[in-house]
C-alpha cells in the first residue's frame, strides 16, 4: 500500500509540474506570436523527444525506481504533452482552413513520432 501511495504522489506531482510547464509554453508563445497552437506543436515535439529518451533509459537500465519512472513518464511528460489540445487546435484551425489544419495534423504526428524514435535511438545507442 505504501508503494502505491508513493506512485500516486509521484504521478500527481509530475502531472502538476508538467501541466505548469505546458501552460508556461502557451503563455510564452502568445508573447511572440498571435497564434497559440505553435506552443502545442512545440510541447508535443519536446515531450515526445523527452519521452523517447526517458523510455530508452528505462529500457537500458532495467526496472529501477518505479516512482521516478512514474513521475517522469505518466506524471511530468503526461502532464506536459497535450494531444487533447492538439485535437482542439486541429478543429479550430480547420474552421478557417482545412489545408492548414491538415498540415498541422500531419506535421505534429510526423515530428512527434520521429522525435520519439530519435530519443529511443539516442538513449539506447549510448548504452551500447
Automatic annotation (TrEMBL):
**Keyword annotations of the record:** Cell membrane, Membrane, Transmembrane, Transmembrane helix
Q: Which family does it belong to?
A: Belongs to the fluoride channel Fluc/FEX (TC 1.A.43) family.
Q: Does the keyword Membrane apply?
A: yes
Stated membrane topology is: Multi-pass membrane protein
Its chief place of residence is: membrane
Q: Which subcellular locations apply to this protein?
A: Cell membrane
Q: Where are the transmembrane segments?
A: 37-59, 66-86, 98-120
Q: Specify the protein name.
A: Unannotated protein
Report whether Transmembrane shows up as a keyword of the record.
yes
Kindly list the organism's lineage.
Answer: unclassified sequences, metagenomes, ecological metagenomes
Amino acid at each position: 500500500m505504501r508503494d502505491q501511495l508513493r506512485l500516486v504522489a509521484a504521478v500527481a506531482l509530475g502531472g502538476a509540474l508538467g501541466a505548469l510547464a505546458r501552460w508556461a509554453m502557451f503563455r510564452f508563445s502568445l508573447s511572440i506570436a498571435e497564434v497559440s497552437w505553435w506552443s502545442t506543436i512545440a510541447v508535443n515535439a519536446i515531450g515526445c523527444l523527452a519521452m523517447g529518451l526517458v523510455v530508452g533509459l528505462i529500457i537500458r537500465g532495467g526496472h529501477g525506481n518505479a516512482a521516478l519512472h512514474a513521475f517522469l513518464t505518466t506524471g511530468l511528460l503526461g502532464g506536459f504533452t497535450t494531444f487533447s489540445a492538439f485535437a482542439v487546435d486541429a478543429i479550430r484551425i480547420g474552421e478557417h482552413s482545412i489545408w492548414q489544419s491538415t498540415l498541422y495534423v500531419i506535421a505534429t504526428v510526423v515530428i512527434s513520432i520521429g522525435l520519439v524514435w530519435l530519443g529511443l535511438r539516442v538513449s539506447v545507442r549510448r548504452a551500447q
